[in-house]
Amino acid sequence: MLVNVEKIRNICISIFTTIGVSDKLSQLVVDDLIDNNIQGYSSHGVMRVKEYVTHIKQGYIISKNCPKANLISDSVSMIEGNKSFGVLVVKEVVDHLLQKLEINKFGFVTFANSGHIGRLASIAAPITQAGGIIIGYLNFSGSGQNVIPFGGRTAKLCTNPIIMGAPSPDGSILIDFSTSSYSEGKLRDAYYRNQKIPDGILIDKNGNSVTNPKEFYEKYGEVFLTPLGGSELGYKGFGLSLFTEILAGIISGGGASSAKRGGMTNSGFFVTFLPEIFNQSGDAFNFEINNLINYLRDTGLKTSSDNVSIPGLRKKNNKKSKTIDLPQKILDELIELKDT
């Protein structure tokens, strides 16, 4: 159902301010969530409000805290999230990545102990807009173990998303995906909308496919996400997830999956660089990127085709949209939270 943006915004801000979050920070967090809804990423939209409230009450997000950066060198920064809101950590990470590009033309930035980061594209887009290439990894600091390793029967990994981004004359090329068959947010969105999911995304402890996302949430610990690629090619997603644990978890110091579960916070690892460090001018790089995109889109036929969609280059929706598509379950949940 279509719901008025201003109405939802006011409800969500009220929910946060009532539990002690400052008005300014509440607006920042809510506007970020609503923009995700507007852009079509409801998995990172206002459905997360209840999760954030729970994490605040459990001490995994401390709304009065701010991230603190430790400058290791001109090319390396490590950011301590201090359990602050993810939107604040995102800003700190982006600032340091941009500084690396400006000073060295390359750099590494890690962070640990952050509240939910949201879409990794929020970190990558400003870097690509500055002409940089970025590769990043994010884990759940050893928590959220709901993905089975390839060949396994017990969940030991998180959804562990990866981001890759590069500039192009048409805009930012961005690949932002989980190393599991579905992101948890996409699965949750299907649950709220009472939608079935394809075979092979979820399996139970006996290896049987589950198509109702409701079972994942109501039988937690008995139904698991599969790695990207499913039962046949899941070793690829598992390999990507493994290295995400190494880079985002171990290198950052935030924590990797183990028998001792983590503290429901995000940790991440990012590397960025300008094409110039490989003796390639920005103009030359853009020329080659443009040639590549045009070649991929060219069907070889007399009529053009729009079937080839380059990741990140789809048209964005107007941030000033007056409505968002919201399941009734989420609206009811938000109203209940507001009135609690």
Question: Which structural traits does this protein have?
Answer:
340 residues; alpha+beta; seven-stranded mixed β-sheet; three-stranded antiparallel β-sheet
Report on this model:
This protein has 340 residues and is α+β, with helices and mostly antiparallel strands. Helices cover 39% and strands 19% of the residues. The chain has helices spanning 5-18, 23-38, 49-58, 86-103, 121-129, 184-192, 214-218, 230-251, 282-297, 328-339; strands spanning 2-4, 68-73, 76-80, 106-114, 133-139, 162-168, 171-177, 202-204, 209-210, 223-225, 266-273, 323-325. Helix 1 (5-18) runs antiparallel to helix 2 and helix 1 runs parallel beside helix 10 (328-339). The radius of gyration is 20 Å and the shape is globular.
Give a short summary of the structure.
This protein has 340 residues and is of the alpha+beta class. The protein is built from 10 helices and 12 strands. Helix 1 (5-18) runs parallel beside helix 10 (328-339).
